[in-house]
Amino acid sequence: MACIATLSTVFPDHQTFSPLENRPHDLSGAPIGLIDYYAACDPTPYEPTILAISIATSFKNARAGSNVTLSLRYHPPIDHPPGEDIYTYSPANLPRFSLVGYIESIPIDQVRRYRHDRCFFERHPEAVAWKPGNAIHDSWWARLVVEQVYWIGGFGDRAYIGWIPVEEWRGVTQQEVSDARLVGEKV
After folding, report:
1. What is the DSSP secondary structure assignment for residue 137, as one 8-state letter?
2. DSSP letter (8 states) at residue 25
3. Residues 85 and 93: beta-carbon distance below 8 Å
């Protein structure tokens, strides 16, 4: 899967914001999706770890009570040609899914114990500039607490499309993820 995802939230009905934002006044209830980094870190790799930047719209909306959806998609390897079927690498035929839930702060003792920072920065080394305590923006470690999972495996005539029970999502092992092969992946 891609190492970035689309984090979608909804603007709250009433929120005070800085005039410096130059935000239109008629955004109440409007959805917005913006890309963000995520990583699957222990002890709950099924609940993505996110480096939340307080000034970012997504996290302002989440703190104001918005539910959150993190949408991910698979990007096939560019070094493996799709073959004869022109639809093999069509975005409509490739796996993607949305995790629906809410943002929760990760307590600092958990960040230290499970090394969320190391896990996250191994996947996103450039993000170290925004780590908590940086001189640029206020930031904090968060996780998306997943309550629902919607999966699109590809074309409906050959792949599953629908809701996955959250208990099943949480029960998938790292070995099962490692053993799975998506379109274009070599065995």
Report:
1. S
2. S
3. no
Distances (CA, A) of 69 to 35, 85, 113, 141, 145: 11, 32, 27, 17, 10
Backbone angles phi, psi at 93, to 5 degrees: -100, -5
Tokens describing residue 7: 């984090």
| 18-37 tens-digit pLDDT | 778 788 878 999 999 999 99
CA distance 51 to 36: 9
- Considering only CA atoms, which of 148, 33, 157 is closest in space to residue 93? 157
> How much is the pLDDT for 175?
86
Q: What share of the chain is helix, strand, coil (3-state, %, to 5)?
A: 25, 30, 45
Q: Say which residues have a Cβ less than 8 Å from residue 58's Cβ, sequence separation at least 6.
A: 7, 8, 9, 32, 34, 36, 68
H-helix or E-strand spanning residue 120 = helix 116-123
Other CB atoms within 10 Å distance of the CB of residue 50: 27
Q: Are 40 and 116 in contact (CB under 8 A)?
A: no
Three-state secondary-structure class, residue 122: helix
pLDDT digits (tens, 9 = 90+) for 147-180: 999 999 888 888 899 999 999 999 998 888 888 8
At residue 10, the 3 state secondary structure works out as: strand
